């Protein structure tokens, strides 16, 4: 007779307090997105006109950088579950590089807008564009700081196949940052 072994999985994975924080952050972004959509509906021509001035190619590269970075975070978690600390460390380092690439490209975009004299008071579209993307930008910075701590802890051997909740929790935060960008990118740059 075949006996199937049941593996108990913790739900939600990682730290519950971080999941509560992630849900609160998503709620704040949802309010921002709703305000953007409501304001856009009343100012379609203005939003379409200035949305066309954004660099969608750079925004697409930002999307690729964040998604690739998230892939490396998932790979780091899989590696640690297999007790492969060195491999996990390398994947975390690559995820940090992806996050930094996002920041550099976003700063390039902000620099271009500032050189054009664009700021929060230019018009409603730019007020939302700058507010939403900068709020996300700050979350990326926090996410990179978390990834650096995870990378250092993994290098020290603090995570194992049996003890990796911290790594999973940090990864969950980084995925939240990605999720927000995956909504922000089409909302701000593409949808007309």
From TrEMBL:
<dbReference type="InterPro" id="IPR000298">
    <property type="entry name" value="Cyt_c_oxidase-like_su3"/>
</dbReference>
<dbReference type="Pfam" id="PF00510">
    <property type="entry name" value="COX3"/>
</dbReference>
<keyword id="KW-1133">Transmembrane helix</keyword>
<protein>
    <submittedName>
        <fullName>Cytochrome-c oxidase</fullName>
    </submittedName>
</protein>
<dbReference type="GO" id="GO:0004129">
    <property type="term" value="F:cytochrome-c oxidase activity"/>
</dbReference>
<feature type="transmembrane region" description="Helical">
    <location>
        <begin position="58"/>
        <end position="79"/>
    </location>
</feature>
<feature type="transmembrane region" description="Helical">
    <location>
        <begin position="91"/>
        <end position="108"/>
    </location>
</feature>
<feature type="transmembrane region" description="Helical">
    <location>
        <begin position="172"/>
        <end position="191"/>
    </location>
</feature>
<dbReference type="GO" id="GO:0019646">
    <property type="term" value="P:aerobic electron transport chain"/>
</dbReference>
<comment type="similarity">
    <text>Belongs to the cytochrome c oxidase subunit 3 family.</text>
</comment>
<feature type="domain" description="Heme-copper oxidase subunit III family profile">
    <location>
        <begin position="16"/>
        <end position="192"/>
    </location>
</feature>
<feature type="transmembrane region" description="Helical">
    <location>
        <begin position="128"/>
        <end position="152"/>
    </location>
</feature>
<feature type="transmembrane region" description="Helical">
    <location>
        <begin position="16"/>
        <end position="38"/>
    </location>
</feature>
<keyword id="KW-0812">Transmembrane</keyword>
<dbReference type="InterPro" id="IPR024791">
    <property type="entry name" value="Cyt_c/ubiquinol_Oxase_su3"/>
</dbReference>
<dbReference type="GO" id="GO:0005886">
    <property type="term" value="C:plasma membrane"/>
</dbReference>
<keyword id="KW-0472">Membrane</keyword>
<dbReference type="InterPro" id="IPR013833">
    <property type="entry name" value="Cyt_c_oxidase_su3_a-hlx"/>
</dbReference>
<dbReference type="InterPro" id="IPR035973">
    <property type="entry name" value="Cyt_c_oxidase_su3-like_sf"/>
</dbReference>
